[in-house]
Amino acid sequence: MMELKKKLAFLYPTYVLAIVSIGYVLGELGHYMIGVTSKAIATDLHYGDITCQLNNTELDLNGSPEVCSDANDSDTCMALTIDGVPYCEWTYNGLGLDYQILAGPSFIAVFTIVGVIMGFLADKFNRVRMLGIATAVFSVAIVVSGAVTEYWHLVVLRMIMAAGESACNPLSTGILSDIFPEEKRALVMSIFNWGIYGGYGIAFPVGRYVPPLNVWGLGWRLCYYAAGIVALIFAFLTYFTLKEPERQSIGEDAANTDGKKITIWSVMKDPRVIMLCLAASIRHCGGMCFAYNCDLYYQIYFPSYDLGWWLFAVTIIVGSIGVVVGGVISDKFVAKMGIRSRVVILAISQIVATPFAFGSVYCEPVGAMITLGISYFFAEMWFGILFAILVEIVPLHVRSTTVGVFLFVMNNIGGNLPIAVEPVSKAIGYRESLYIFYVAFYLISSLMFLLTVFLMPAGISTTSQPTTKDITGVDNIVFTTDETNLPTITNLVKNFKQTDTESSRL
Q1: Which candidate, 376, 362, 201, 206, places its Cα nearest to that of 286?
Q2: Distance (Å, rounded) from C-alpha 498 to C-alpha 492?
Q3: What single DSSP character describes residue 417?
Q4: Which of 59-73, 235-249, 402-416, 427-441 has the lowest mean pLDDT?
Q5: Hey, what domains does the chain have and what are their CATH numbers?
């Protein structure tokens, strides 16, 4: 048995990456599914705006006298017919201020605050155990969301879901950065952070095609029951099959030999961190704005086109390729040119993505999907590269706390600004509001990332060294000493990593 464990020890890092990444995908599925199921839920729970919309009657609408959305009251709406058959209905469209609060602030407010707390605790306690519990929390919230009967129930559950999911990034980022060496770090971070887009992409077919099936009479509720139950399985696997890795100094932290104690405040005042945080906040706003509104946007502007599978393919397939390519290129260049090269790749990828993001809103359905695919290929490189940069310029003892604070600022700005889409869309139009909060924000963040390049040091970093255990609370001694004498797969991986990390270049 021990011989088998030794042979399989090399697979353990990949296993950890798979478990935490899939768990994150499921959390993000619960997060973004509201954007696709909102119309069905609003019809059931009665919240948001009521408008005239195309109904499910299968009529040939070519040459129809009027567009449904032009009708401003129920009588005018129902009077729109073809051969005496109404082709419009006066019902909830899933949008409105109620929806924007549900999708954004109710989730983001808790997500950001608890995320900082989780980041602080992650620097002091067992991250794997905390991640397992947090995954269980958001899993239960997703399941119970399928049983709600009032709007406010859903708001409360979105807050609980946010509290659990807020732990995923700071905890998993720390765990993965301690397991994988620098030459693989951007790719690993990209794969993990692709969970955002994985969950978002899967939400399209799940939210669009499962509710109409009305399996067991559950409608939209089945989406939440199924997603939550699967997430609970991964919460169990996280808690019981993963082990806390030994914490390691990496990047600039490994090169810091003057013994000066660096605090979270001094880290957050670093011009590089400030610039990265502001640029990331604006870029995140653009991404969240499109994520919350794209399905409803395409349904409103192109009601005759079923784009669910197209959106799934663009986000899952094209986005995945972009994530991998971005991570691989970043890891290749950092070995020769240092951390600055990561920022260069980050800036260039977002600049290239911007004009195609404009096309995804401006063009007709076919052109919109083509330009959206190209935009996604370049745009989705950003998150993994960003956090690879962050963990390499932040000291070990405040790494998870910094990620938590970084996410707090980024999500408060990027997650709450999309609520402005509602009043702006009523003033100048829905499509025009997306030009501002989606396309223009992509462009602004691209330029800010480009300016950040000049704040980064040139050249390559020094060799990483594992940290030495002490009793200051930084390492998880209380959680690891009871495991040191057990022949676990984690110990085998730890021994294997000692040689690997000492010879790697940072």
Answers
A1: 376
A2: 10
A3: G
A4: 59-73
A5: 9-48+93-460 (1.20.1250.20), 50-90 (no CATH)
